[in-house]
Amino acid sequence: MRSQFFIGYMILSSILFLHDILVVFGFINSVFISLLGVLVLIGYFAIRLIVEHDSMQVKLAELAFKDLQTGLPNRAQMVKSLESEKWLLMERASIAFWIVDIDHFSRYNRTFGRKVGNRILRRIATQLKSVAETHQIKLAKLDIDQFLLVCCGETNNEEFIHQVAISVQYAAQQEIFIDQRDFKPTCTIGMAVLRSEEVREPEELFGFAEQAIAHAKQFSKSNIVRLEESDLHRSRYEQSLMKSLQDALDDFLLQAFFQPQISASGELYGAEVLVRWHSKQGFIPPCDFIPLAEKYGLIHKLGSQILEKSLTAIHKYQNQLLKKDFRLSINVSSWELGRPSYVSDILRLFEKYNVSPALYTLEVTESAMMHDIDKSIEKLLELKQHGFRIALDDFGTGYSSLSYLTKLPLDILKIDKAFVKQMDCEAEVMFVKGIHDISLSCNLVTLVEGIESEFQVNALLAMGIKYFQGYYFSRPLPFEEFESLYLSPSRKAISKL
User: Fold this and answer.
1) Burial class (CB in 10 A: 0-12, 13-18, 19+), 271
2) Quick check: 378 and 369 in contact, CB under 8 A?
3) Who contacts 187 (Cβ-Cβ below 8 Å, separation ≥6)?
4) In Å, how far are 54, 86, 234, 296, 351 from 203, measured between CA atoms?
5) Sign of torsion over alpha carbons 22, 26, 27, 29
6) I need a labelling partner for 445 at 20 to 30 A (CA). Which of 179, 270, 291, 405 fits?
């Protein structure tokens, strides 16, 4: 297009230049032709600009709504298409989709180069396009190695839904021959049938598609997995809870509760700071929202807020408690410990609230340190140098490797409540005793959590264990109640031993 424009411009310019020379030397007396030539040249420029503009608009539209590698409609085109048929979506009772993820596609790019990878994608796209045309359903390329097929009709026909999934899998897994190489791609397919009211906007469909493929990958690759109504319900609950959690964190609505830790002499040894959330819908168990906070990157904010609330609460008692060697324990998640700035962040908070780190024990789990054991040890050593004690939480439920237990800068070993519940069994009693013996051999303090009965206390005392935590002594308490029972001068007797 540009070369044609240039050639036309050169021809017209040459003719006008020749004409002007003839006029100058008197061979032609009239300049009318010259003026006409100028107008023709301007007109030519205008026409070419209009043509170029229209051509550019077409190309921009292709770039905006087509995938360059495969020529298929892209995400934006799928949205546009569904928007144009929104009335049809509202008319239908349901809408079905199949999302296709090519397994280990990045390996093709790394091993054979992007050109080969792109050719594999184009072949798969061609085969999927054939399936889409056969079944009269929409097809788009979403991500580098993901395709989405959508059907607004026959969604109540289970045989059709299944047949499309089989056809899609077969098409995507056809052998492909490129440059005398034989490629055998495999794919994972997530699928679902949604009620039309669940897809009020086309963009919402992509959210469900992401959930479907994530759900499918949890099982195994190279498989077809349907996202059932129960899965969708759980996903909707998770999304709702996630939004509520974000709002609760923004409004500082999560609470710090304190569960006492009691010594064998019946005295207050310390307390564990636990997060509690009482939302408008009622009490939300930590096992529901803490994994969610970790999954969506809110655990740093959550941990920081609970630590700050505990620092604010305990500040006025710190001199009194330090004299008694009292420690507040607070949990550190794997996400927090893995954060490069974790040590500086936590020290900054203690400096802000003018509280000594010697008042706190940081509880870490075995799994939290396994992501990078050397880095974890380095951070824990630095924290210990500032006065923190370190406790290994839930020992026995994770890796439980004695090889690293001696390397970690620990002060306390916490035995998980799962073992305490089974203490009516002789084997479990011996197992708990074995953990305590290991703790003693490493010069660690043993603390058992989850104590719920006098029988458990007596059995643990008989083993020589001296520190306990659990509902037998006290449930987790809001600070005002904990303060009244355990810190104020008029406090009641503590011992249940």
Assistant:
1) buried
2) no
3) 100, 101, 102, 103, 169, 172, 173, 222
4) 30, 12, 20, 20, 46
5) positive
6) 291
Cα–Cα distance measured from residue 19 to residue 21, given in angstroms and rounded to the nearest whole number: 5
Q: Which is nearest to 456 in space by CA: 465, 182, 218? A: 465
Separation between Cα atoms, residue 82 and residue 286, nearest integer Å: 40
C-alpha distances (whole Å) from 336 to each of 211, 238, 324, 376, 394 are 26, 22, 29, 11, 17
pLDDT at 24: 57
Q: Specify the pLDDT at position 431.
A: 84
Rounded to whole angstroms, how far apart are CA atoms 45 and 458?
Answer: 99
- Cα(230)–Cα(90) distance, integer angstroms: 23
Specify whether the CB–CB gap between 466 and 264 falls below 8 A: yes
Find tokens 């077409």 and name the residue. 58
- Residue 71: CB atoms within 10 A of its CB come to 13
Structure-token pair, residue 151: 């059907």
Amino acid letter at 121? L
> What are the 10-residue block averages of pLDDT along the chain, 497 residues in total?
57 61 56 58 65 60 74 87 67 82 90 91 94 92 91 79 93 91 92 80 83 85 83 78 92 95 92 94 90 88 95 92 91 88 94 95 82 85 95 70 76 88 76 89 92 91 94 95 86 58
Rounded distance between C-alpha atoms, residue 172 and residue 115, angstroms: 19
**8 Å CB contact between 229 and 455:** no
